[in-house]
């Protein structure tokens, strides 16, 4: 089956720093999404990005489908950015396969 | 986006008992998905619930352990049966938003089995 690998597994930042999270996937996909799970467990959909680049405030994402990877950029990080970031790809219509996540901790 | 209400938000249960989790969506949807997140782990799909037909289970999950109901296009339940401590997890329901681009999740049910 398709493999979804995220790196790094853990990341500690000082408030205001920038970071890049990576997601590699082993097969062609029609759908790739980035999620943020806050410390209270709520999952928030950040981006739907099967290809190209999107930006939303301090966050942006780029997917290079031909090379099977996606990047999530966080600029000027804030303590509220802490949590786990997941990328997920669509295996069969409707079914997402999740990576293992990157746990981000932003220190004040 | 979709608004998904899930309850209970958390529960502590004794081994051998069962818990039914409810998921209500603010719009009609064809498919609803149930995921499990074990402590410190990623999300794993349990099953897909379609209205009017039996749920489709992923490898490693069976109907006897995780029976699912889907009585209409806005509601589903997942039951965790004959629980053991290994069932301690967060259980989440999810649906696709309009345009089937983004998947949205309920707030989850934190289950602890003693």
Tally of helical segments of chain A: 0
CATH superfamily of chain A: Immunoglobulins
Q: According to CATH, what is the class of chain B?
A: Mainly Beta
- The number of distinct helices of chain B, counting runs of at least 4 residues, comes to 0
* Fourth-level CATH superfamily of chain B: Immunoglobulins
Unreliable segments of chain A (pLDDT under 50, ≥5 consecutive)? none
Assembly category: heterodimer
Give the terminus-to-terminus CA distance of chain A.
Answer: 41 Å
Query: Could you tell me the mean pLDDT of chain A?
Result: 94
The Cα radius of gyration of chain B reads 13 Å
What is the count of distinct domains of chain B? 1
Q: Indicate the percent of residues in helices of chain A.
A: under 10%
Q: CATH topology of chain B, which one?
A: Immunoglobulin-like
Q: List low-pLDDT spans of chain B.
A: none
Strand content of chain A: over 45%
What average pLDDT do the residues of chain B reach? Answer: 94
Considering the chains and any ligands shown, give keywords for the structure.
heterodimer; A: 108 residues; mainly beta; Immunoglobulin-like; six-stranded mixed β-sheet; B: 114 residues; seven-stranded mixed β-sheet
Q: Could you please describe the fold and organization of this structure?
A:
The complex is a heterodimer of chains A (108) and B (114). Chain A has no helices and 11 strands. With 108 residues, chain A is an all-beta fold. Chain A has a single domain (4-107), classed as Immunoglobulins (Immunoglobulin-like, Sandwich), CATH 2.60.40.10. Chain A starts with a strand and ends with a strand. Chain B has a single domain, classed as Immunoglobulin-like (Sandwich). Chain B is built from no helices and 11 strands. Chain B has strands at 4-7, 10-13, 19-25, 31-37, 43-50, 56-57, 68-72, 75-80, 89-96, 103-105, 109-113. The relative contact order of chain B is 0.33.
């Amino acid at each position: 089956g398709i493999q979804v690998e995220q790196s790094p597994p853990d990341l500690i930042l000082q408030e205001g720093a920038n970071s890049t999270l990576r997601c590699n996937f082993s097969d062609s996909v029609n759908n790739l999404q980035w999620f943020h799970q806050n410390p209270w467990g709520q999952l928030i959909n950040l981006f739907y990005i099967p290809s190209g680049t999107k930006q939303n405030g301090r966050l942006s994402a780029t997917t290079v489908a031909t090379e099977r990877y996606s990047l999530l950029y966080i600029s000027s990080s804030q303590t509220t950015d802490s949590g786990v970031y997941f990328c997920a790809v669509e295996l069969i219509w409707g079914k997402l396969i999740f990576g293992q996540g990157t746990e981000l901790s932003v220190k004040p | 986006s979709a608004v998904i209400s899930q309850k209970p938000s958390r529960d502590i249960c004794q081994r051998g008992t069962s818990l039914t989790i409810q998921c209500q969506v603010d719009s009609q949807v064809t498919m609803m998905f149930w995921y499990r997140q074990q402590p410190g782990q990623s999300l794993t799909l349990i099953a897909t619930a379609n209205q009017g037909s039996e749920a489709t289970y992923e490898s490693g999950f069976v109907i006897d352990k995780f029976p699912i109901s889907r009585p209409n296009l806005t509601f589903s339940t997942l039951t965790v049966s004959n629980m053991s401590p290994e069932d301690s997890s967060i259980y989440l329901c999810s649906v696709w938003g309009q345009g089937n681009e983004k998947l949205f999740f309920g707030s989850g049910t934190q289950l602890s089995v003693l």
